[in-house]
């Protein structure tokens, strides 16, 4: 038996490719009740993940790490994690991350230690909110993010290509603040071309598994 079902992320990765054709839910495929000591879960992309995940979280009392796509109703899932997973410490979001999601984390998971938003669309105000309100955060990864600043109307939003002094000062309390905003960076270019919602299927196989945070890389 594999302690903590360590191969579970691989099962889900393979499951992703047949979900569209077979139209089966995660809970139909995986014997969730046999993995009550699950510690790490990776869900790279799944349109129907929300309802199934909220039902399953009750079983995963030892869950510490989650990689998941952005979802519409984030408070429900985040609250379920906070209620059931006392050792939860790190989260990776693959997709747009807005103030609504950030507020959910601040409300229900204020002791979160590691957050990776790499290759995602991120608003400057949301980044500042994270730095101001997730006071227990040790590691924040915004490498290759499409960082957007929204000025007062009617001016349009603009891409932030360099972090200002305010953000750098707020981030100085972190043990690690991982960034990359170089115009010459291929991953930064891809995030911009995909408008902050990475089309991973267009790129090298397994590219989505990478992360500058070692504990989140596969």
Which helices and strands occur, and which strands form pairs?
Blueprint: H1 8-22, H2 26-29, E1 40-42, H3 49-57, E2 65-69, H4 74-84, E3 90-94, H5 99-108, E4 114-116, E5 121-123, H6 124-133, E6 139-141, E7 146-149, E8 158-159, H7 165-171, E9 176-178, H8 186-193
Parallel strand pairs: 1-2, 2-3, 3-4, 4-6, 5-7, 6-9
Antiparallel strand pairs: 7-8
Helix pairs in contact: 3-4, 4-5, 5-6
Q: Can you summarize this structure?
A:
The protein has about 220 residues and is of the alpha/beta class. Helices cover about 35% and strands about 15% of the residues.
- Strand proportion: 5-15%
Report the oligomer. Answer: single chain
Strand order of the largest sheet: 1-2-3-4-6-9
> In total, how many domains does the architecture comprise?
2
Order of helices and strands: HHEHEHEHEEHEEEHEH
Work out the helix count.
Answer: 8
The value of Rg in angstroms is: 17 Å
Quote the average pLDDT.
83
Shape: globular
Give the uncertain stretches in residue-range form.
1-29
Structural class call reads: alpha/beta
Compute the number of strand runs: 9
Gap between N and C termini, in Å?
A: 21 Å
Helix content: 25-40%
Query: Main beta sheet, described?
Result: 6 strands, parallel
Q: Can you characterise this structure?
A:
Mean pLDDT is 83; it is low at 1-29. Strand 1, helix 3 and strand 2 form a beta-alpha-beta unit. Helix 3 (49-57) runs parallel beside helix 4 (74-84) and helix 4 (74-84) packs parallel to helix 5. The chain is of the alpha/beta class and 218 residues long. It is globular, with a radius of gyration of 17 Å. The strands form two sheets. The protein has a six-stranded parallel beta sheet with strand order 1-2-3-4-6-9. It has a three-stranded mixed beta sheet with strand order 5-7-8. The protein contains eight helices and nine strands. The chain has two domains: 1-88, no CATH class; 115-218, no CATH class. The longest helix has 15 residues, at 8-22. The two termini are 21 Å apart. It has helices spanning 8-22, 26-29, 49-57, 74-84, 99-108, 124-133, 165-171, 186-193; strands spanning 40-42, 65-69, 90-94, 114-116, 121-123, 139-141, 146-149, 158-159, 176-178. The relative contact order is 0.11. 34% of the residues lie in helices and 14% in strands. InterPro entries: LRR_dom_sf. This is F-box/LRR-repeat protein. It comes from Populus deltoides.
């Amino acid at each position: 038996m594999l302690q903590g079902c360590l191969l579970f992320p691989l099962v889900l990765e393979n499951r992703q490719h047949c979900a569209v054709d077979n139209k089966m839910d995660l809970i139909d495929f995986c014997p969730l009740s046999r993995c009550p000591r699950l510690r790490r879960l990776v869900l790279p992309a799944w349109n129907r993940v929300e309802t199934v995940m909220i039902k399953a979280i009750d079983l995963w009392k030892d869950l510490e790490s989650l990689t998941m796509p952005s979802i519409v109703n984030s408070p429900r899932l985040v609250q379920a994690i906070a209620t059931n997973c006392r050792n939860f410490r790190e989260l990776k979001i693959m997709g747009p991350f807005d103030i609504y999601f950030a507020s959910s984390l601040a409300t229900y998971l204020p002791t979160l230690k590691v957050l990776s938003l790499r290759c995602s669309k991120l608003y400057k105000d949301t980044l500042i909110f994270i730095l101001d309100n997730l006071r227990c955060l040790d590691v924040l990864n915004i490498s290759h993010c499409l960082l957007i600043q929204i000025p007062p109307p009617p001016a349009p939003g603009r891409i932030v290509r360099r972090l200002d002094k305010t953000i750098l000062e707020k981030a100085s309390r972190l043990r690690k603040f991982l960034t990359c905003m170089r115009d010459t960076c291929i991953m930064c270019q891809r995030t911009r071309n995909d408008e902050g919602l990475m089309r991973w299927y267009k790129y090298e196989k397994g590219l989505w598994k990478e992360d500058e945070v070692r504990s989140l890389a596969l």
